[in-house]
Amino acid sequence: RGGKAEREIPFAQPGSLTRVYAVASGKGGVGKSSVTVNLAAAMAADGLKVGVVDADIYGHSVPRMLGVEGRPTQVENMIMPPSSATGVKVISIGMFTPGNAPVVWRGPMLHRALQQFLADVYWGDLDVLLLDLPPGTGDIAISVAQLVPNAEILVVTTPQQAAAEVAERAGSIAVQTHQKIVGVVENMAGMPCPHCDEIVEVFGTGGGDRVAEGLSRTTGTTVPVLGRIPIDVRLREGGDDGRPVTLSHPDSAAGTALRGIAAKLG
Ligand code: ADP
């Protein structure tokens, strides 16, 4: 916005009542976006006003997962985020890359995009804002810390993850930036066998605990495992159909686990 001063980020102002969570993971495909949208939908169903910033440059799958078909509109010089049937307001980096053309994102571009999503989007009063970050703990985590110093970090992992590395990197960034790591979510934590009572540990066990222990050590604070979400076909289908499992099957094991985590964060 040529030459004009940058607008302030409302969530970064002292006294802001919006809780901001940056959802991070060490690598892609662990279910970071699925967790984000399900938490958002569950919180909205509990009556909270919720927004999601989809800053995952590799996936930007949040609009599809929440069934958002609308586009952002411009009113005066603010961007109005489309709402979803869940009531969650969404802005996605995919809404600004025409035809979803592949874009090579560099740190400063992503920083600028995030700044605009936070400052130039009209969010209204939010209780909770979730930021779906690209996988990998790098520049973007530092951008978040600069733009919204009070943002807390939520780490998503699988039971399998080479935990030490993630924990160390995410932890040392949090220490550097004085950010709080609110907890760890272990996703894909076993699959109930459809034919018997057994749980198939598809991705092994213990990753959530190992990441939480590593983060606790690195940060010198206690980082809890907030919940474990099993593998559930309905969770994947819900993502594909734009109906989060926390709404379509709230009492399934996955729905219950996710709603429990949402209640801790909301
Ligand atoms: P990320 O954001 O970490 O890249 P996604 O949320 O896009 O990961 O998830 C990757 C794929 O795995 C998606 O197809 C999603 O539906 C599926 N998925 C994630 N978590 C689960 C789960 N607990 N049960 C079944 N499928 C899952």
Describe this structure in words.
- The chain is an alpha/beta fold.
- The protein has one domain: P-loop containing nucleotide triphosphate hydrolases (Rossmann fold).
- Helices cover 35% and strands 18% of the residues.
- It contains nine helices and eleven strands.
- The strands form three sheets. It has a seven-stranded parallel beta sheet with strand order 5-2-6-1-7-8-11, with helices on both faces.
- Helix 5 links the parallel strand 7 and strand 8.
- Helix 3 packs parallel to helix 4 and helix 5 packs parallel to helix 6.
- It is globular and about 60 Å long.
- The protein binds adenosine-5'-diphosphate (ADP).
- The site of adenosine-5'-diphosphate (ADP) has 19 residues, from helix 1 and helix 7.
- GO terms for molecular function: ATP binding.
- Belongs to the Mrp/NBP35 ATP-binding proteins family. In the C-terminal section; belongs to the Mrp/NBP35 ATP-binding proteins family.
- This is Iron-sulfur cluster carrier protein.
